Amino acid sequence: MWRNAYFVDLFVRLSNKVAIELYKKLGYVIYRQIVDYYTGERDEDAYDMRKSLSRDPEKKSMIPLTHPVHSRELD
């Protein structure tokens, strides 16, 4: 399963500062901001945080985007 992957990513509410700092300590970077990722009682954007795996030794998959994307643009 992981043999063909270049990175692992996870999504974190922008307000969840504790989790964001924890993931940074574990080697994740903020790859991009996702507008309106969380919807419901409290709408909120999310960070897509990424960490390269051994198949990406140059960590190209961790180069952050310079602009936010909308949740409807996700594939």
UniProtKB/TrEMBL annotation:
Domain of life: Eukaryota
InterPro entries in the cross-refs: Acyl_CoA_acyltransferase (IPR016181), NatB_acetyltransferase_subunit (IPR051646)
Keyword Cell division part of the UniProt annotation: no
Gene3D superfamilies referenced in this protein's UniProt entry, alphabetically: 3.40.630.30
UniProt KW keywords: Acyltransferase, Transferase
Keyword check for Acyltransferase: yes
Gene Ontology molecular functions: protein-N-terminal amino-acid acetyltransferase activity
Cellular component annotations (GO), alphabetically ordered: NatB complex
Family: Belongs to the acetyltransferase family. ARD1 subfamily.
Cited PANTHER family: N-ALPHA-ACETYLTRANSFERASE 20 (PTHR45910)
Protein name: N-acetyltransferase domain-containing protein
Provenance organism: Caenorhabditis japonica
Taxonomic classification: Eukaryota, Metazoa, Ecdysozoa, Nematoda, Chromadorea
